[in-house]
Write a structure and sequence with these properties.
The complex is a heterodimer of chains A (243) and B (78). Chain A is of the alpha/beta class and 243 residues long. Chain A is 43% helix and 16% strand. Chain A has helices at residues 15-26, 38-47, 65-75, 102-125, 142-145, 151-171, 195-204, 213-224, and strands spanning 6-10, 30-35, 55-59, 84-87, 133-138, 175-182, 235-238. In chain A, helix 1 (15-26) crosses helix 8 (213-224). Chain A is globular, with a radius of gyration of 17 Å. Chain A starts with 5 loop residues before the first strand and ends in a 5-residue tail after the last strand. Chain B is an all-alpha fold and 78 residues long. Chain B has one domain (2-77): Orthogonal Bundle (Non-ribosomal Peptide Synthetase Peptidyl Carrier Protein, Chain A), CATH 1.10.1200. Chain B is globular. Classes of the chains: A alpha/beta (243), B mainly alpha (78). Chain A binds chain B through residues 69, 72-73, 76, 80, 121-122, 124-126, 128-129, 170, and chain B through 36, 39-40, 42-43, 46-47, 50, 52, 54-55.
Chain lengths: 243, 78
């Protein structure tokens, strides 16, 4: 489905990003994998050898714009065109509204909004000559539904949704821009949730379980591929029907 | 040499030919150079000179002569 396309995935070393990298490689995509964890990236690159696709890894902390610029200077040594961008890197933390310090709010927005915003600014300049360009943002069900103790995270992901809608309008028809709003997924990020909170999400899900990373990656693949070539400016909920 | 490369980048990105007075072009003075084409132009210039422009310079690139000035700065820094 993605043969010979170049896909950039952030937060690629684990969870949804890692599953997406594996699924994309299975479908023939060449990969530009970005994460902070060098060892995990090296290990993933080794794992992807069986798929005979080009895999380039980049260690980068995306919370600093200078790092993002340096990242693209390195990426241009590998490819001149990017077809797919999966803005997956993000952080989550919980605290009640009245107890959320401004530095935590700022940090949340730096990683969850500013970083994908700036990364996509650079990336789209390399996507204009692609005939199948697709940008995907990983938002969250909390962006539209909210959650107790997650005002900072929810607002950063909600802002990402607004950015996606605007960007889709600016970049059409050359580049499709969409977002996915996962529910609670079995990844390292859920360690920040309390047991009661996890149980609540499980009981609210119509499937009575959490999502697995591959279930989110499947939808990312759909949005990255020509299967979704008439879809843009869309947010797809992958949350097990949580209302 | 640099001017010719820059001219080619303008022609490619804006879909114009040499009948336009490229060296005196200014942003938004011809239909072909609008905000959407501007980002194509930035990409084309980056590819042509193998540079990565900062957002401030993208905003400042309001004419062909300004583009020349900005590109020269990056090439000097390289």
């Amino acid at each position: 489905m993605l043969k010979n396309r170049y896909a950039l995935i952030t937060g690629a070393s684990r969870g949804i990003g890692k599953e997406s990298a594996i699924l994309f490689a299975k479908n023939g995509a060449n990969l530009l994998l970005v994460a902070r964890d060098k060892d995990a990236l090296i290990s993933l690159k080794e794992e992807l050898k069986e798929f005979s696709v080009n895999v380039a890894i980049f260690v980068c902390d995306l919370s600093d714009e200078n790092n993002i610029k340096s990242l693209f200077i390195e990426i241009k040594k590998v490819t001149r065109i990017i077809d797919i961008v999966v803005n997956n890197a993000g952080i989550i933390d919980s605290s009640m509204f009245g107890m959320t310090k401004s530095d935590k709010l700022k940090s949340m927005f730096e990683t969850n909004l500013y970083a994908p915003y700036q990364l996509t600014q650079y990336a789209t300049r390399m996507m204009r000559k692609s005939s199948c360009a697709s940008v995907i943002f990983i938002s969250s069900m909390m962006a539209t539904k909210g959650a107790v103790g997650h005002s900072a995270y929810a607002s950063s992901k909600s802002a990402l949704f607004g950015m996606m809608k605007s960007l889709a309008k600016e970049l059409a028809p050359t580049i499709r821009v969409n977002a996915i709003a996962p529910g609670v997924v079995k990844t390292d990020m859920i360690k920040t949730l309390g047991e009661d909170e996890k149980e609540n999400y499980i009981s609210e899900s119509l499937f009575k379980r959490l999502a697995t990373p591959d279930e989110i990656a499947n939808v990312i693949l759909f949005l990255a591929s020509d299967m979704s070539k008439y879809i843009t400016a869309e947010l797809i909920n992958v949350d097990g029907g949580i209302c | 040499m640099q001017t010719e490369t820059l001219k080619k980048a303008f022609m490619e990105a804006l879909g114009i030919d040499e009948s336009k007075d490229i060296e005196n072009l200014e942003y938004n003075t011809i239909d072909e150079w609008d905000s959407v084409a501007h980002m194509n132009l930035i990409g084309e210039i980056e590819d042509a000179f193998d540079i990565m422009l900062d957002t401030d310079d993208i905003i400042d690139m309001s004419s062909f002569s300004k583009a020349q000035e900005i590109v020269s700065k990056y090439l000097a820094d390289a």
